[in-house]
Design a protein that fits this description.
Blueprint: H1 2-26, E1 31-45, E2 50-61, E3 66-79, E4 84-96, E5 102-117, E6 122-135, E7 138-151, E8 159-169, E9 173-186, E10 191-202, E11 209-221
Length: 222
């Protein structure tokens, strides 16, 4: 029974990624923008199953010339089996809108993660996130579902990853779709570098945006 479940999970993951990529390439949007996202992450593993991470990030919009968002994020993660882990975290966001008005938001989130191998070097993972964001006792619920496939190229340290994530609002449905291609490379025993290209689309808004995003992430493991 378990191999059958594995097959259906894997097939659903592949189908979701392919559908999301097709929509990202074919959908029409009224506004486009190129953005640059920069992230520094510090991870501390207390034992084989417990991990604490802190990351800070800066996002630039309008062809990467104006501030869009700055954030600080703290996450606690615990593995309960070889395949399943749970996580919870808090993020403090500072955003700048089109009129350069600053808005500070709090975010609380809870994750369920599942990962497994398809073949020897090919892995897939599923992350389900429940997220509350807002301020002054006014918080909005958002459900985020992420599917990803990662491959470790033989005789190299490169690990390309293909992922898709949808953001689900209880009132309007899928609010946002995010598709990402990432290359990971460890430059030392403690430092990893990730470079990503991402397409993000909005739905059910008056002027939906399609964002074309370059992201660089440095991860330091204590």
């Amino acid at each position: 029974m378990w191999p059958i479940c594995e097959f259906f999970i894997m097939r659903k993951t592949l189908s979701s990624i392919l559908v999301a990529l097709f929509l990202s390439l074919s959908a029409y949007s009224q506004e486009n923008d190129f953005q640059a996202w920069y992230i520094i992450s510090i991870n501390k593993k207390f034992d084989k199953k417990t991990n604490l991470s802190f990351k800070t990030g800066l996002r630039l919009r309008e062809n990467a010339t104006l501030y869009s968002k700055r954030f600080f994020d703290l996450k606690y993660k615990r593995e309960f089996s070889k395949h399943v882990s749970l996580a919870s975290g808090y993020r403090y966001n500072t955003t700048w809108n089109q009129k350069f008005i600053i808005n500070n938001l709090h975010r609380f989130y809870f994750d369920i993660n599942y990962k497994n191998k398809i073949i020897k070097r090919l892995n897939y993972s599923i992350r389900s996130r429940c997220q509350f964001q807002g301020k002054d006792y006014k918080y909005k619920l958002l459900i985020r579902q992420k599917f990803s496939i990662k491959y470790n190229i033989k005789k190299t340290k490169l690990a390309p990853e293909l992922a898709t994530e949808y953001f689900l609002n209880a009132h309007v449905g899928v609010k946002k779709l995010r598709s990402t291609f990432t290359l990971s490379y460890p430059i030392s025993k403690k430092i990893d570098v990730n470079l990503s290209y991402r397409i993000q689309q909005e739905f059910y808004v008056n002027n939906p945006e399609t964002l074309f995003i370059f992201e660089s992430r440095m991860i330091y493991n204590l």
